[in-house]
Amino acid sequence: MTKKELETRLRNGVSAIEAPPLSEEALNACLVQEPDTSKKLRRILPRRLLAVAAVLLLTVAVGVTCFALFSPASAPLQRSTVVSLDVNPSISIDVDNNETVLAANALNDDGETILAEHDFSGQTIDQAVDTLIAAMVTEGYLNDKANSVLITVNSDDDAYAQTLQERLTNDVLARFADGAVLSQHMTADEELEKLAAAKKISVGKARLISQILEADPLKSFDELCDLSIHELHLVANRAAVTTVTGSGEVSDKAYIGTDAAVKAALAHLSLTADTVRGLEAELDYERGTMCYEVEFVSGTTEYEVLVEATVGTVLFAEEEPLEDDDFDDDLDDYDDLDDYDDLDDYDDLDDYDDLDDYDDRDFDDDLDDYDDVDRNEDSDDRADDHTVLPETAITADEAVSIALTDAGVTDANVRTEAEADTEHGKAVYEIEFTVDATEYDYKIDALTGEILERSAEADD
Amino acid sequence: MLTAYLTSVADSTDSADLDSLLRRIAVGEQAALGMLYDQLSHGMYVYALSLLKDRNDAQDALQDSILAVVRGASSYRARGKAKAWIYTIVHNRCMQSLREHKRTYTSLDEVELPDDSAEATEARLLLSTCLKQLSEEESRIVILHAVSGFRHREIAAMLELPLPTVLSKYNRALKKLRTILEG
């Protein structure tokens, strides 16, 4: 069987495996996509063109305003503006053109608690926000450990919404100087409103979550729904969300801190700080809880440890061998070749059919020839293999000898294949040979010479 | 891993089409999602199966990945690397699933195949051979190249391996498969 025939057989074979049909959930998720036309416009149009467009828009706007002022039949221009505040209490406030509060509505039980003691009718939106923030500080919803406020301005007038968003952010920080504000503005979005209603959260929170998901698609809407605004603020920072504005410094005082998290991670693995490098620790939401994601390298192993953020319990630790080239100075040359430019031709040849004798020999139908070159191929394999063994490792020949001795094989003419590899961070030799129609496979620890696995099967 | 890929790999031939589909998905075009799914779901599913070795988990990983693709479509910046971006999402979902379940299956009896035809038997044999006889890295490379159509150079960037290593692992894996299948 040639290499191409084998690949075709493989491709055709697995084509019988059927992927499940596209889910309704994915189709529905597709429908609720919110095209951000303003962002796209900015990306497509150069700055100068945007400036021209802005002047033109202004001209049109002035024209419309003049028409509104001088036409006796025209109704006054009405803006529809809703401001929502989310901490844990969630409150939405309808305001009129003069920025006077028309109505304030609680969106959850904590919102009811806050609103029960206040009447905002006739007040300006700035006064209402100031009063609400003061009440939330008094009631303990805002404190040094949870200091985040989400402001969402929902208006059909985009420019006005942005101005109001910035002004209200300043109002919050003027009242609660140690606060951290996330602010955003949006136009009415029916799908997002439906989603928010179904999840019993505010539209502002739903939008914030959707922005986090855009930056970090591996999280899910449902899991983020359960988080407080403060937690979402931390997650948004971790995901580097750029479509929601952040002001002030979000507090991490409710958590053990990165130093303690690193300490817990190292202690869990019985390692010390001086033996590791590339240390990184960041607060995130993983596995259903806030935790520190601690990453570092020790020796030839890369570690990822999740440390629960409030008490410092290690939730999960994973280790992976670093790729061989990370530690092999000799292989740095490959990196210097700038993406293997000299190998470009191989790519172009598609499947490397003309690569060299290695391939031809590998897939030669003549098994005798194959056997004849088997020993040579061993050395080729070793030369080709980039598994880097420590200096103290045993040689391939020694590993072969250990395997042959274990199998009780004394025939010096037995053909063997030996291949260095790394498995679960451990350097091993894989040895294969066939004697009297029995195929032997060994895995030998490349450092100690210990036999890790052995198998003997009748060679059909 | 994805960043490394984005900065180092040449365009895939079908990436322009995928970029265009992702743009359409970003504005809520379900038909575009259907086309993308038709084009990629088989390879994505086989790749998930090869990593998770469990039908239900692979199906969940595929659906979660597609959801992530839909939600991330508007933030995806077209750089001609759509397929690798999508496969990286599948890979990450599978790794998350492995972490959550902390289990490893070796039986593929549950893999959904259309019937007990010769093709189905061949598929089961090939896949189980891939999974049982090859190392995880070898089977990953074989699936990505032979089934999903990635070039070795692309796989090298995706898996952050030197190209010669991918080449030699691929050749060795095919050699093992041939020996088994011809045996």
Describe this structure in words.
The complex is a heterodimer of chains A (460) and B (183). By secondary structure, chain A is of the alpha+beta class. Chain A is built from 18 helices and 14 strands. Helices cover 40% and strands 23% of the residues of chain A. A six-stranded mixed sheet of chain A has the order 3-2-1-4-5-6, with helices on both faces. A four-stranded antiparallel sheet of chain A has the order 7-8-9-10. In chain A, helix 8 packs across helix 9 (203-215). Chain B has one domain (7-182): Orthogonal Bundle (Rna Polymerase Sigma Factor, Chain: A), CATH 1.10.1740. Residues 1-13 and 104-110 of chain B have low confidence and may be disordered. The termini of chain B are far apart. Chain B is globular, with a radius of gyration of 17 Å. Chain B contains nine helices and no strands. In chain B, helix 2 (15-26) packs across helix 3 (30-52) and helix 8 (152-158) crosses helix 9 (163-182). Chain B is mainly α. Classes of the chains: A alpha+beta (460), B mainly alpha (183).
Work out the oligomeric state of the chains in this entry. heterodimer
Q: CATH topology of chain B, which one?
A: Rna Polymerase Sigma Factor, Chain: A
Q: What's the number of domains of chain B?
A: 1
| Strand arrangement in the largest pleated sheet of chain A | 3-2-1-4-5-6
